[in-house]
From TrEMBL:
UniProt key word Glycoprotein: yes
Organism: Salarias fasciatus
Cystines in this chain: C65-C129, C78-C139, C109-C119, C171-C235, C184-C245, C215-C225, C275-C339, C288-C349, C319-C329, C382-C446, C395-C456, C426-C436, C490-C554, C503-C564, C534-C544, C591-C655, C635-C645, C724-C788, C737-C798, C768-C778, C937-C1001, C950-C1011, C981-C991
Record carries keyword tRNA processing: no
GO molecular function, one term: serine-type endopeptidase activity
GO terms under biological process: zymogen activation
InterPro entries: SRCR, SRCR-like_dom_sf
Protein name stated in the entry: SRCR domain-containing protein
Domain SRCR span(s) in chain numbering: 40-140, 145-246, 245-350, 356-457, 464-565, 566-666, 698-799, 804-880, 911-1012
Gene Ontology annotations for the cellular component aspect, listed alphabetically: plasma membrane
Length: 1126
């Protein structure tokens, strides 16, 4: 029977891969071989590794019923999709009900099946389910830790860890809550509840990798804890250790530009929501911090992201904001509530990868300098090639309507920090700026004078403004933005409760009146709301009941108005600025006599802005105009409004506007980007070298040739200022020395020992505990609040022990690398700068592991000498200055060891060859970046490029460089395009290319490689044992030995020998020049002196003597000389 195949091109690509084969010319025939692509997918989550399970059968997609759905089933799906291990096996249509057929029911998997359809199940299409029982999965890509046999929960079970290509267990000797706490943290499963022993979750199989584990509880991974050594133990599987964790917040990411989700809790192994009763920013902060998403931006109610389903677990939640998890906050009890899902709570957190914002645009959130969030930090976009198409994408991402213009040349002021994008080329159809082509994150040749900007047409939907109110933005005709257009509100039923919500939304304090009958003039355009009925508790006017957008029976002669009481102006943020109050029909200021934090607290609470951070004087946000309404204000801090505090009387004062009071509050976090431009008229300190600074940065001035002693100065509000010496002591000075990377504190001089500064005095009565990382974290009176003169400027003398620091980021663990040499600080050139080098710096500063190794002055250009160039670290060196930049070999490629794709995540810049059959030395080229494997486009791909891949993998000479997806089409990102290697590079990442993620290709152009295969890949004896050492930290000595191996000499390194000993093989040093390998024994060759630029030979007695101390420190591994048994 011949059937017609009717598939669109997109359907064809989705369901089939194809290969065209040309027969010999005499046959003149072309055959099209179709093979089914992956018949499973996860949908409705925005993430390919989580969602509702769907399989392709009989020409259409269908779902899987959740009867007997468990982690074993979910693990098969995750592995089939190359998504690591399963984290959750969800039921009850957790990602929404599907449609169409239900293909599978009663699925029983062992967990080892190659696909879900290979598991035991009812016949295709035979089921007793409906779509609200659709099964779902959340995978954890690349996890090297799992909890097995814990039922439906991935947060309890037998502890298993992945080493050398194999899962194994952990012995329960010394196993306790501290060890279990690290496991829970590594898996993102919240707090630990118990640490079961004696194989509580059943006996495992395979190797027992760890014994006598001793964690401090602060480690991020179990592999960082002390133990006997991988594979060293005296246990049986009857002693397998287990863990029970609390479970973590589970969330679904909305398609919004922000990280936005219905908050869900994991309790009793069932997903449920949280009711919005008493839901506020303190609660939201706990959720955002628990998810490592930065501080909360908004705490939304009324199911802002749609109603959930299933149980409502929490109600009446009260958090202080410091709790470790949402379940630690005060609440009624799990499952106790009086809510419906239309009251589900939601959250918007501040920092989300790829989020954009517009800075310094005045009162508009839809115009300003373009900034994008990457790697935990906001950065700008260079204006090279910046045009309306690029700006249009930004406007769309922000929901700001059509683009009006795409300003360049830092029209909205120069930003600070990294420049993330350059040469942006959007088509205009993208939904997010991060989807557009660009040079690569952090790759640019720009300065901040080229920061790109955007002006969009519209405000955000639901935004309100008060029009025609004269000089006041807190009184006027009420206007609201909907459907791309501003419109008015009809005054039918308009009253003080409605006006109160408008004042709250605008941050204008209490309502004074709710004028009707177009008191502020008639508006134009649509009338959006009529018969508004607010309860007074809403946070936005759009949350109030009304007839419906655009439904009314009014004319503009009935436009509603509002007059509010208090506001903060001249900062660009509603929660900071000069204090102004509305009285007798006009706005006026408050004098700063006796102005203190209690007064500021009342203003901040009145504006619903949290607690006061600073009570500023001397017109910090510029002098106002008009009347000065209040003077000598005394608040206890509990008054409902500033006018309720004790004062001289309205209009009674002895002040000028240069004494206007100001306030900065803690919520939202204050940013220097919001300060007025030009700056307020303060007595400024001229920064040395015209260098400004980062908010909270410190420096030591007037200390002679040393940058580690001098007068303490700190940067706030665009200006350097000093610190008063009241209460100043060694604990305070210790924090300054730590922040500057200047070693231990020696003394804390007072009385302006290093000369009197000028400009503001920012801190007084500083009280540090000594454990803070920055001076701004210490307690003090408030920024700008003091009773000192510059004759009391505080100083510091540090030891200057640490010769390295990271600057210009506002964070001591990220920034431009600088080292101290010959009495001054200088920078390091980025030639050959990679993660190994960065890891040494991070460890030297006690900052953990390196996340990125950035080049091209990502944190701004330094000044002074450039001390180091061509730095080559192995990654295990103790510090940067002890590394010789002239004698060490170039960074070597990794061991000649391959790991099957899917079982191993990778390290930045690692390569692998996929889909090459039984050979690990041929296949589709894939490279690891930003936590994900991706392919390489075949544009310009040739033998020189392929040669570098073969070298990096230790696979011998290159034979061919296939193109056009010869080894099948990959998936995920395409990381490189237009690769141009010289052929001498040691790693593909060292070759020139367009930039990471910048390409114009599809996966049908994926590049491939066929290498010759080295002898180590061809032996049929012990050398065939492939050992995954990727998770093992090697000492400096071990790295040197490994580099001997990787230059092509036939010898073995320390790690390999140690591993073979663990596996029961024997080794013996046989000769200095060669080795012979048999199945029974392994003979270890020592290497010639040509291996390394050292005056001794590897593995000779001289080398053993040289390296013996280091070898002892790195695990008591012995040295071998000729004739020694290993």
């Amino acid at each position: 029977m011949l059937h017609r195949l009717l598939l669109s091109s997109s359907q064809f690509r989705e369901h089939f891969s194809f290969r065209v084969c040309f027969c010999p010319p005499s046959h003149l025939a072309v055959f099209l071989f179709l093979s089914a692509a992956s018949p499973v997918r996860l949908v409705n989550s925005g993430n390919r590794c989580s969602g509702r399970v769907e399989i392709f059968h009989a020409g259409q997609w269908g779902t899987v019923c959740d009867d007997h759905w468990d982690l074993d089933n979910a693990n098969v799906v995750c592995r089939q999709l190359d998504c690591g291990t399963a984290q959750l096996a969800l039921s009850s249509a957790a990602f929404g009900p599907g449609r169409g057929p239900i293909w599978l029911d009663e699925v029983y998997c062992y967990g080892n099946e190659p696909s879900i359809s290979d598991c035991r199940h009812s016949e295709f299409g035979v089921h007793d389910c409906v779509h609200h029982e659709d099964a779902s999965v959340v995978c954890a890509p690349g996890s090297h830790m799992r909890l097995a046999n814990g039922g439906n929960s991935s947060c309890s079970g037998r502890v298993e860890i992945f080493h050398f290509g194999q899962w194994g267990t952990v012995c329960d000797d010394l196993w306790d809550l501290l060890d279990a706490e690290v496991v829970c943290r590594q898996l993102g499963c919240g707090r630990v509840l118990s640490a079961p022993t004696q194989a509580r979750f059943g006996q495992g199989s395979g190797p027992i990798w760890y014994d006598d584990v001793t964690c401090t509880g602060s480690e991020t991974k179990l592999s960082e804890c002390q133990h006997q050594g991988i594979g060293s133990h005296d246990c049986g599987h009857s002693e397998d250790a287990g863990v029970v964790c609390e479970g973590n917040v589970v969330f679904i990411t909305d398609s919004s530009v922000f990280l936005s989700f219905p908050v869900s809790c994991f309790a009793s192994e069932t997903l449920g929501t949280v009711c919005d009763d008493h839901w506020d920013l303190d609660n939201a902060d706990v959720v955002c911090r628990q998810l490592d998403c930065g501080p909360a931006q908004s705490a939304l109610s009324h199911a802002a992201f749609g109603p959930g389903s299933g149980p409502i677990w929490l109600d009446d939640v009260y958090c202080s904001g410091n709790e470790p998890s949402i379940s630690d906050c005060k609440h009624l009890g799990f499952g106790v509530h009086n809510c419906g899902h239309h009251e589900d709570a939601s959250v918007i957190c501040e920092g989300v990868e790829g989020e954009v914002r517009l800075a310094n645009g005045g009162n508009s959130s839809c115009s300003g300098r373009v900034e994008i969030f990457h790697f935990g930090q906001w950065g700008t976009v260079c204006d090279d090639l910046w045009d309306l198409l690029d700006a249009e994408v930004v406007c769309r991402q922000l929901g700001c309507g059509r683009v009006l213009s795409a300003p360049t040349q830092a029209r909205f002021g120069q930003g600070s920090g990294p420049i993330w994008y350059d040469n942006v080329m959007c088509t205009g159809s993208e939904t997010k700026l991060s989807e557009c082509r660009h040079q690569g994150i952090g790759s640019h040749d720009c300065g901040h004078m080229e920061d790109a900007g955007v002006v969009c047409e519209a405000a955000s939907p639901g935004e309100v403004r008060l029009a025609n109110g004269g000089n006041s933005s807190c009184s006027g005709r009420v206007e609201i933005f909907h459907f791309g257009q501003w419109g008015t509100v009809c005054d039918d039923s308009w009253g003080l409760l409605d006006a109160e919500v408008v004042c709250r939304q605008l941050g204008c304090g209490r309502v004074l009146s709710a004028p009707t009958q177009a008191r502020f003039g008639q508006g134009s355009g649509p009338i959006w709301y009529d018969n508004v009925m607010c309860t007074g508790n809403e946070t936005k006017l759009s949350e109030c009941r009304h007839q419906g957008s655009g439904s009314h029976d009014c004319g503009h002669n009935e436009d509603a108005g509002v007059v509010c009481e208090v506001r903060l102006v001249n900062s660009g943020k509603r929660c900071s600025g000069r204090v102004e109050i509305f009285h007798a029909g006009q706005w006026g200021t408050v004098c700063d006599d006796h102005w203190e934090l209690n007064n500021a607290d009342v203003v901040c609470r009145q504006l619903d802005c949290g607690r006061a951070q600073s009570a500023l004087s001397n017109a910090a946000f510029g002098p106002g105009s008009g009347p000065i309404w209040l003077d000598d204000v005394y608040c206890s801090g509990n008054e409902p409004s500033i006018s309720d505090c004790k004062h001289l009387g309205f209009g009674v004062h002895n002040c000028g506007h240069h004494e206007d009071a100001s306030v900065i509050t803690n919520i939202p976090t204050f940013s220097t980007a919001t300060l007025p431009n030009p700056r307020p008229p303060l007595n400024t300190t001229t920064p040395p070298g015209n260098y400004t600074g980062v908010e909270g940065e410190v420096r030591l001035a007037n200390g002679g040739n040393s940058s580690c002693s001098g007068r303490v100065e700190i940067f706030h509000f665009g200006q350097w200022g000093t610190v008063c010496d009241d209460s100043w002591g060694l604990l305070d000075a210790e924090v300054v020395c730590r922040q500057l990377g200047c070693g231990r504190v020696l003394s804390a001089p007072t009385q302006a020992r290093f000369g009197q500064g000028s400009g503001p005095i920012w801190y007084d009565n500083v009280m540090c505990t000594g454990s803070e990382t920055k001076l701004s974290e210490c307690r003090h009176q408030g920024i700008g609040s003091h009773d000192c003169g510059h004759n009391e400027d505080a100083g510091v003398v540090c030891e200057a022990a640490s010769p390295v620091r990271l600057v210009n980021s506002g964070n001591r663990c990220s920034g431009r690398v600088e080292i101290f040499h010959a009495g001054q600080w200088g920078t390091v050139c980025d030639d050959h700068w990679d993660l190994d080098n960065a890891n040494v710096v991070c460890r030297q500063l006690d900052c953990g592991r390196a996340q990125s190794a950035l080049s091209n002055a990502a944190f701004g250009a330094g000044r002074g000498p450039i001390w180091l160039d061509n730095v080559s670290c192995f990654g295990n060196d103790t510090n940067i200055p002890t590394v010789s930049t002239s004698t060490l070999p170039n960074p070597r490629p990794p061991l000649n060891i391959t790991t099957p794709p899917g079982n191993y995540t990778g390290v930045e810049g690692e390569v692998r060859l996929a889909n090459g059959g039984n050979s690990s030395c041929s296949g589709r080229v894939e490279i690891f970046h930003f936590g994900q494997w991706g392919t390489v486009c075949d544009d310009s791909w040739d033998l020189l490029d392929a040669e570098v891949v073969c070298r990096q993998l230790g696979c011998g000479r290159v034979l061919s460089a296939p193109t056009w997806a010869r080894f099948g089409q990959g998936s995920g990102p395409i990381w490189y395009d237009d690769v141009m290697c010289t052929g001498s590079e040691t790693k593909l990442s060292e070759c020139r290319h367009q930039g990471i993620g910048s390409h114009d290709c599809g996966h049908m152009e994926d590049a491939g490689v066929v290498c010759e295969e080295s002898s180590q890949h061809q032996h049929g004896h012990a050398l065939d044992k492939e050992v995954d050492l990727s998770g093992t930290m090697m000492s400096c000595a071990q790295a040197v030995k490994q580099s001997c191996l990787n230059v092509g000499t036939k010898g073995l390194d320390l790690m390999t020998v140690a591993t073979w000993r663990m596996l029961g093989l024997s080794a013996k040093v046989y000769t200095d020049r060669y080795c012979t390998v048999t199945h029974q024994s392994v003979f270890l060759a020592t290497l010639s002196s040509g291996c390394l630029p050292f005056p001794v030979s590897c593995f000779t007695s001289e080398t053993c003597q040289l390296w013996k101390p280091l070898l002892r420190q790195s695990g008591d591994l012995p040295c071998w000389t000729v004739g020694d048994s290993v």
